[in-house]
Amino acid sequence: MKRNLYFIVAAVTCLALAMMACNAVTSLVNSGNSSGGGSSSSAGSSGNDSGSNDAGSGNTGGTAGKVLFQDDFSNDNSGWGTASDANKSVQYINNTLEVKVFKDLDMVYSNQSDTDYQDVHVEVTAAPNDSDKNSYFGILCDQQVTGEAFYYAAVRPGGGYVIAKAAVAQDDVYLTGGNDWKTSKLIPVGASSYTIGMDCGSDGTLALYVNGKQVDSVTDTTYTSGHIGLFAASDKKPNSADVNFSNYVATSLK
Prior knowledge:
This protein is mainly beta. The protein is built from 1 helix and 18 strands.
């Protein structure tokens, strides 16, 4: 299934590339089938979440480490990439970073800088507003210079989740649940907000947390450092993703 990727670059990146006529938005249209990796359920497929994982270790991730960056989005000039057009909108709104996806099968990313992070725990509160239960949102890490290669941890309002790997011109690989979405009782269905956390370790450890509980973890060593950011993605329905992010903090795992 074809998926459009809209990567909203940080302001600092555009300044660095001003001589190359950098725009506020870089549209990365993936020419391959990348909506969810092979036959896996994704924003562009059936939307059914298979399998479940309800163990939950209670581990809250690397939140006790050194604070590397944090943002309450009260300052509109804190550096996150923003833009608005017929396909998407990323804006500072009422002490949040609001991400809206207007087209179907689109994923919109934003990050705060072009800083490379390694061994990092990222945590953010996400309020999905009226997002469809099969839309998804979350955190990306270890993003490479191409912009299309990274890991991401995603949550659906319907209780689904995935930890996945994106690569240039390849289908996304869902590292959890047999290359498909899974469900967990640790993810409340239809909640007004979710506190999402993600560990990205240089040893390949990738973990997803929701509301302070570890939902799942996997190991993959394709990427070991890179940019971090936030994203929202629509399913087959236009205007199906509308998320406000707040209380963002990145801390060291070591």
